[in-house]
Amino acid sequence: MNLNESYSKLVTPFPVEVMEIKPGATTRDKARALAMPYADVRVYQQALDDAVGPQEWQVAYRPWEDKAVICQLTILGVSKEDVGELADEGDNAYTSAIARAFKRACSAFGLGRYIYGLPAVWAEYDGERRSFKDPRKVMEQIYRQAGIPVEKPQAGAGPERVK
Known about the structure:
three-stranded antiparallel beta sheet, alpha+beta, flat, single chain
């Protein structure tokens, strides 16, 4: 197996049920928010396992001064790097920087890159609860607008991870 043979698996969009959304800008009354889709790091890790096998990829991190973390991702012997900046996130600053660096390094291989090009969608939002009213529906709308097929959830398929 080589990277060219695995590329189509790496660039396959994640299933809608593993996607999450967070609010970007909101309307003044907080009734609508810009939906910003993302996937948890573990979704990327599972996608790598599925595409090439757990033995065929590895990751290494190193600090870049006190400003960022550099992630080196190696898949089937090919390495690419990217950076995740430290943000003011308290105790989670390094964890968040590592996650950003990892996702960006994955994107260099095509994994998750499509997320950066998903359309902007404004959706109903509950400002008090700080959550979208129907996150699955919002994520499905985003995928459909991007031309990504959406499968209907199967009964008993487990908890939805769209937030």
